[in-house]
Amino acid sequence: NQTGKDSYTADKKTGSDAGTAAGSVGDPAADVTSKSKGYQDGYTAGYTTGKATYDTATQAGTSDGSTGKPAADNSQESQAYKNAYTKAYTTNSGDYQAGKTDGTANNSKSTTNTSTGYVNGYQAGQTSYSNDKQTGSDAGTAAGSVGNPAADVTSKSKGYQDGYTAGYTTGKATYDTATQAGTSDGSTGKPAADNSQESQAYKNAYTKPTRPTVGTIKPVKLMVPLMLQRVRRTRVPGMSMAIKPDRRVTATISRLVRMPEPQPVPLAIQLPM
Predict the structure, then answer these.
(1) CA distances from 40 to 17, 32, 36 (A)
(2) Taking Cα atoms as reference points, which of 165, 195, 191, 150 lies closest to residue 177?
(3) How far, in Å, CA of 9 to CA of 29, rounded?
(4) Lowest mean pLDDT segment, chosen from 90-99, 176-185, 225-234
(5) Do 147 and 179 touch, CB atoms closer than 8 A?
(6) Is the dihedral of CA 204, 209, 210, 211 positive or negative?
């Protein structure tokens, strides 16, 4: 009859809402055997749909969060989907970041957090640490090998710092050893050593002068005119005669600095009558 149909329909709607709500948040299905047939049918169908949405969203959120991906754009999804995705993403992304932090700092792997997100994050952090360490090692070796002072790398990552310190120490040791050997051989007049089996950094440091080479200063030839003066005796009133320039000759004088050119000086000589 109509009353029974209406009651079944109403119970089914009520059961469907309850089942959807439970399934959408991942709750286990409730025991509804004591409920009416309509309620049971509605609950079962609603729960199945809600749980499927929850599982799909949770899987997507877990996958993205546990691999370090940015959160997906779920603006076109249902609210139930959004809620499940966000919950899974937040949890797994947090684990991923925690693992990455430990891995990048080269800390020991956690024995309490063994989630997929943490494990993936730790591995990513270790990869980052190794790459940064290699980069730092190259930079430190390059600086130490030419005798430069160590750079301030406190603002760099742990991997870069560790690599730089180790690389610099090795490079500087090579530089110091080669420089000492080159200085010893060069300062005692020994022939240069055969360093063919040594590294290029060693060869460079050994060969490099330890002090500037003093070059030969070439003298500059300056032409300074000199005056040869001949005294011509001519009797003039007042018993005097003048000394006049007669001719010029040129002399070459080597000097490192320019001297002022001498000027002819008139002389007056008193002669006896």
Answers:
(1) 11, 6, 6
(2) 195
(3) 21
(4) 225-234
(5) yes
(6) negative
Nearest to 158 by CA among 132, 178, 137, 127: 132
Task: State if pTM tops 0.90.
Answer: no
- According to DSSP, the residues that pair with 221 across neighbouring strands are 254
Q: What does the block give as tokens for 98?
A: 């925690």
pLDDT given for residue 11 in this prediction: 96
Q: How many CA atoms lie within 13 A of 40 on its CB side?
A: 7
> What Cα–Cα distance (Å) separates residue 4 from each residue in 8, 34, 45, 46, 209?
6, 18, 20, 21, 107
Please state the rounded mean pLDDT for residues 5-9: 91
What are the pLDDT digits (tens) for 123-155?
Answer: 999 999 999 999 999 999 999 999 999 999 999
- Alpha-carbon distance of 14 to 4, in angstroms, equals 15
Q: Is 28 exposed, middle or buried (0-12, 13-18, 19+ CB in 10 A)?
A: exposed
Q: How far is CA 26 from the centre of its chain?
A: 47
Q: Alpha-carbon distance 270 to 272, whole Å?
A: 7
CA distance 97 to 128: 13
> SS3 letters for the chain?
CHHHHHHHHHHHHHHHHHHHHHHHCCCCCCCCCCCCHHHHHHHHHHHHHHHHHHHHHHHHHHHHHHCCCCCCCCCCCCHHHHHHHHHHHHHHHHHHHHHHHHHHCCCCCCCCCCCHHHHHHHHHHHHHHHHHHHHHHHHHHHHHHCCCCCCCCCCCCHHHHHHHHHHHHHHHHHHHHHHHHHHHHHHCCCCCCCCCCCCHHHHHHHHCCCCCCCCCCCCEEEEEEEEEEECCCCCCCCCEEECEEEEEEEEEEEECCCCCCCCCCCCEEECCC
